[in-house]
Amino acid sequence: MVIIAGVDEAGRGPLAGPVVAAAVILSDEKIEGLRDSKKLSAKKRETLFEEINNKAVSVGIGIVGEKEIDKINVLAATQKSMQMALGRLKQKPTLALIDGYKLPNQVIPNKGIIKGDTKVESIMAASIIAKVTRDAIMVEYDKIFPEYGFAKHKGYGTKQHFEALHKFKAAPIHRRSFKPVSSNLPTIVWLQETKRVGIVGEQLAACKLMAEGHTIISINENCAPHGEIDIISEKDDLLIFTEVKTFSKEQMATPELKIDINKLRKLENAINSYIWKHNINKDIRLDAMSVVLGKNHSIKKFEGIELNFN
């Protein structure tokens, strides 16, 4: 029996974010409206995304981040994401049909089909899964990096994106091996002069939380008159408030030493204000993170900062 998986990717061209691939084994159950994901509206893609996941025999997803893209190049990263997607199928296919060119060094026999996302339904399905998955990631990143407009352009090189890149320099999720990015890399001096050291530290901390499975709810939440909460996230039905301390060089300091009793009182008042405003009824936790900026950023997390002063 021949079991065919269609494979496609999203995100080879953008200046930021990961490349995402999907592998899909379709069932005999018909899915109406399958087309190349680029020819569908966002609403239609999302509807088909749910239908494919519900009706397909198996769906596998592979994600390769910007750091790996910079390390091995975008073509190799794309191939790696496709191999990951195939490896995550619950049922092993006997043949993989790849949009574009054949995958090298792949255990599963595979065949490349030029413009396969316009010819083969399983590849069309894979293109939709990959596109919707990647778009959702970029929308999440937009909460962390609102100045770049990722929710709108998804990291592609639009006029808005180029203008933001020039004004704010590259964000941590930009692909530094891509020329428009490599010519707009921030330096520590530039971050200090533009007062963005703290902002970048908070963004790096939020990215780490996102990678650990947190859903980012808000960055720099203003809880006047009590001040701001750096990061609000949720994981495992726990609401987590994170205070971030950023340094531009190695220092003998930790968030525990830097967050004094007065700051803790302000944080407690801000958190209580946020909980009351949003009518929240769930367990909460206060964490702290220290970020040291440099060629290789250092991030440390301290969980469960005590908030009771009674």
Q: Topology of this protein?
A:
Elements: E1 4-10, E2 19-25, H1 42-55, E3 58-64, H2 66-72, H3 74-87, E4 95-99, E5 110-113, H4 121-144, H5 150-153, H6 159-168, H7 179-182, H8 188-193, H9 197-211, E6 215-222, E7 228-235, E8 238-247, H10 255-258, H11 261-277, E9 284-292, E10 298-302
Parallel strand pairs: 1-4, 4-5, 8-9
Antiparallel strand pairs: 1-2, 2-3, 6-7, 7-8, 9-10
Helix pairs in contact: 1-4, 2-3
Protein architecture, described:
The protein is of the alpha/beta class and 310 residues long. The protein has helices spanning 42-55, 66-72, 74-87, 121-144, 150-153, 159-168, 179-182, 188-193, 197-211, 255-258, 261-277; strands at 4-10, 19-25, 58-64, 95-99, 110-113, 215-222, 228-235, 238-247, 284-292, 298-302. It folds into 2 domains: 4-142, Ribonuclease H-like superfamily/Ribonuclease H (Nucleotidyltransferase, domain 5); 186-302, 3-Layer(aba) Sandwich (Trna Endonuclease, Chain: A, domain 1). The protein is globular, with a radius of gyration of 22 Å. A hairpin with an 8-residue loop joins strand 1 (4-10) and strand 2. Helix 1 (42-55) crosses helix 4.
Number of strands: 10
Estimate the global geometry from the Cα principal axes: globular
> Which sequence of strands runs across the widest sheet?
3-2-1-4-5
Assembly status = single chain
Order of helix and strand elements from N to C terminus: EEHEHHEEHHHHHHEEEHHEE
For this structure, the CATH topology of the largest domain is Nucleotidyltransferase, domain 5
Q: Return residue spans where pLDDT drops below 50 for at least 5 consecutive residues.
A: none
Task: Indicate the proportion of strand residues.
Answer: 15-25%
The separation of the N and C termini measures 70 Å
Radius of gyration: 22 Å
What is the SS-derived class? alpha/beta
**Number of helices in the DSSP assignment:** 11
Helical percentage: 25-40%
